[in-house]
Amino acid sequence: MASTRWSWRTGALNHTANAEASNADTTIALSRDTLNNLILKQTTLDKAIAAGEVKVTGNSDKLKEVLGYLDNFECWFNIVTPDPRPQTPEPRPQNPEPAHPKLKAETIGTPLGVGKMTGAN
Fold first, then answer.
1. How far apart are CA 106 and CA 118, in angstroms?
2. Which residues contact 102 (CB under 8 A, 6 or more apart)?
3. Residues paired with 9 in a beta bridge
4. CA distance 48 to 109
5. What does the alpha-carbon distance between residue 32 and residue 2 come to, in Å, rounded to a whole number?
6. Is the pLDDT confidence value at 52 over 90?
7. What digits encode the pLDDT tens for the residues 21-33?
């Protein structure tokens, strides 16, 4: 079974693969299948511990404390949602200001009102 060290610092849960902390408050041992079942909420931590699928050594209250910091999300939540406000295009200026002070804008008589930049004299 691979070991992973988890640490909680400045509000972020960090992990380091193939590492163990000698001064850990709590150590848990479980299989990947058990972890998947916990993530998918097919079982609870208490049930997995009672069934012997999770072994906890050290201060189990610290484990409960860390788990209490985690958010519970609905399984299928919208990551991006459409903006409900009606979208209206911004009005385009008829004579755009020149990008450079030595240039002047000249409007070409087309339906699109495309501007043409010419050098100033």
1. 7
2. 119, 120
3. 12
4. 76
5. 10
6. yes
7. 888 888 888 888 9
